[in-house]
Amino acid sequence: MKRILIAILILALIGGAIAYRMWNKPHENIAETKSVATVTSSDLFKSYSADEKSANEKYMAKVITVSGKVAESKVEEGKTVVTLQTEDPIGTVVCSLDPYSKQEKTSFAVGDQVSFKGICNGFLSDVIVDRCVLVK
Questions:
Q1: What is the C-alpha to C-alpha distance for residues 2 and 19, in angstroms, rounded to an integer?
Q2: Residue 109, exposed/middle/buried by CB under 10 A (0-12, 13-18, 19+)?
Q3: Which residues contact 63 (CB under 8 A, 6 or more apart)?
Q4: Per-residue pLDDT for 27 more than 80?
Q5: C-alpha span between 66 and 95 (Å, rounded)
Q6: HSE on the CB side for 105, CA within 13 Å?
């Protein structure tokens, strides 16, 4: 009985140490992370519109660089959200700037040509890219 209690205590300590380390893990620096793909906003949207499953395998939860013209730029809940135009009249790529990175620029004019590096989070009615940083 004593051995079982000691084993449970050791497992609990190991589990607690792992949980503590995961909780305090630093955020990934998107600016220094290499992109797995560089794509235009139109091509990214087309890829998701044509075959969402295939596009998810290629882009989902990966750091990508997406470029396009700004359709809209606004601040929502303290976070800058930039919408990029596509060739589709109703579809866009929505890029949320990374709150953990120091942003060089946080306001963008409609029509500006920009490139962002961020984590692709899939397709709702638009393609969502989060934790974006401006690529020079």
A1: 26
A2: exposed
A3: 30, 33, 34, 35, 36, 117, 118, 119
A4: no
A5: 9
A6: 12
